[in-house]
């Protein structure tokens, strides 16, 4: 299988296991730290086994595994989040995801995001879409941790805020056309955005840091705190508004 097919297969497989765990959880387990930990552990174990079997020569950066500095000298690195949205997963919700991306020679080369609650997986093999300008912008926002900047951005753009769960789920909501932009400023790591960004780019969406600079992966420090994924026809407007808000805050 090629790299995109591998990414999709791994994300789907981990997603199926996680969905089974979620559906078999007792009412007493819902929302518990134990259920979150079990999901992380089962998915990490599955992805580690499959990557070892299918891409043993490649390095891996995962939220749920010790970081190996050898990846910095590797030409191919899989960047994975075994369970993006542990809170939503543990609560029995559908708005969580599994991320599998491949970084190769400085660029995101392939990726897939499984949305097990929807029975859907989005990957970089999908054809690019044709995007049109919406009558009113819809912004994906955290259902529990909307940052002041994003709230102010919604006001500046006269945008509708659409609350939802994990980072990957929000990015995929842009890809699926349910919202028009996802702007995050609350802190993330490379595994939170690598696969969603790879898939968003393949779909023809705009992606960047909130200052308009490029998103770069496989850094020594994987902290990558902010993100824009949006309809390409809105990119300039969104970035200008974010820039104006940041200047006002200084």
TrEMBL record:
Question: PROSITE patterns from the xrefs?
Answer: IMP_1
Show which residues constitute the signal peptide.
none
Q: List, alphabetically, the Pfam families matched.
A: Inositol_P
Q: Which InterPro entries match?
A: CysQ/Inositol_MonoPase (IPR050725), Inositol_monoP_metal-BS (IPR020583), Inositol_monophosphatase-like (IPR000760)
Could you tell me what reaction this enzyme catalyses?
A: adenosine 3',5'-bisphosphate + H2O = AMP + phosphate
Domain of life of the organism encoding this protein: Bacteria
> Could you tell me the keywords of this UniProt record?
Magnesium, Metal-binding
Q: What name does the UniProt record give this protein?
A: 3'(2'),5-bisphosphonucleoside 3'(2')-phosphohydrolase
């Amino acid at each position: 299988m090629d790299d995109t097919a591998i990414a999709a297969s791994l994300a789907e497989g981990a997603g199926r296991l996680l969905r089974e765990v979620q559906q078999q959880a007792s009412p007493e387990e819902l929302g518990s730290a134990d259920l979150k930990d079990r999901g992380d552990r089962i998915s990490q174990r599955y992805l580690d086994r499959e990557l070892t079997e299918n891409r043993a020569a490649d390095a891996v950066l995962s939220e749920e595994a010790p970081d190996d500095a050898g990846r910095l000298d590797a030409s191919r690195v899989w960047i994975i989040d075994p369970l993006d949205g542990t809170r939503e997963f543990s609560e029995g919700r559908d708005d969580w995801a599994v991320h599998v991306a491949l970084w190769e020679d400085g660029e995101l080369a392939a990726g897939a995001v499984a949305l097990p609650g929807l029975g859907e997986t989005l990957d970089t093999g999908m054809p690019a879409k044709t995007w049109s300008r919406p009558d009113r912008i819809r912004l994906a926002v955290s259902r529990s941790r909307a940052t002041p900047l994003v709230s102010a951005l919604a006001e500046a753009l006269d945008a509708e805020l659409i609350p939802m769960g994990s980072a990957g789920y929000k990015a995929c909501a842009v890809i699926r056309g349910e919202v028009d932009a996802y702007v995050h400023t609350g802190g993330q790591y490379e595994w939170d955005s690598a696969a969603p960004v790879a898939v968003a780019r393949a779909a023809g969406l705009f992606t960047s840091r909130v200052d308009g600079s490029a998103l770069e992966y496989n850094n020594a420090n994987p902290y990558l705190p902010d993100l824009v994924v949006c309809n390409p026809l809105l990119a300039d407007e969104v970035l200008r508004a974010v820039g104006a808000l940041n200047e006002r805050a200084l």
